[in-house]
Amino acid sequence: MSRPLRIGIYSGTFNPVHSGHVTFALQALQTANLDKVYFLPERRPRYKQNVEHYGHRIAMIRQALHLHPKLDVLETDDVSFTVTRTLPRLERRFTGAELVFLMGSDVSIHMSSWPNIELLLERSELAIGLRAGTSWHDVRLRLSALPATPRAVHVVESYAPHVSSKKVRQGLRERRYVHGLLASVARYSNKNWLYVSLS
Fold it and tell me: Does 176 reside within a domain?
């Protein structure tokens, strides 16, 4: 009897996607025994300003992932993600699959503030990539305080813990290479004059 598909869902702003995102997804494939990871960019992030247009972010992700057959992009109609609306859509899209949500440790420590987080935890697993400045001990403490326990937690020691979209945006504004900037993203951004007006 074959096992259920194991699908990774990596939601975020990806403003822009960088090598840290891609390497974390590739690591999570192995660590959490996933069949595929889908990048799920948020159309209108609630807590971030001056985000490049959704269409540009999608295009950059597609170019960044085209050499990795087990990584792909997934789009939904949700403007912003919520557990009660987005999770059921994903469960219908991947009927019968086991869902594993990917996130950085800097995101995971804020999960207690997410509305209806217990539903997500009870129905899925987590793959958490350790970012610079956050230890597994920190993450474990925050997870223990959540209203429910995830089915499983997979810890990924990130190969690129210091890479950030903020630093990459700075490099794109100044038209210079910074650690984590993907060549495909630099070409697309320069061609379309992205990030030049962002503070």
Answer: no
| Number of structural domains the chain divides into | 1
- Which structural domain, as residue segments, surrounds residue 155? 6-162
In a domain, 152, yes or no: yes
What's phi and psi for 71, nearest 5 deg?
-115, 135
DSSP state of 157: E
pLDDT tens profile 20-60: 999 999 999 999 999 999 999 999 887 788 899 999 999 99
Q: How wide is the angle at C-alpha 6 spanned by C-alphas 76 and 107, nearest 5°?
A: 60
Q: Which two tokens stand for residue 127?
A: 């793959």
Q: What is the CATH number of the domain that holds 158?
A: 3.40.50.620
Query: Alpha-carbon Rg of the chain, whole angstroms?
Result: 17
**Phi, psi (deg, nearest 5) at residue 78:** -65, 130
User: Any idea what DSSP says for residue 25?
Assistant: H
Domain assignment present for residue 175? The answer is no
pLDDT digits (tens, 9 = 90+) for 95-137: 999 999 999 998 888 888 899 999 999 999 999 999 888 888 8
Q: What is the DSSP string of 100-155?
A: EEEEEHHHHTTGGGSTTHHHHHHH-EEEEEEPTT--HHHHHHHHHTSSS--S-EEE
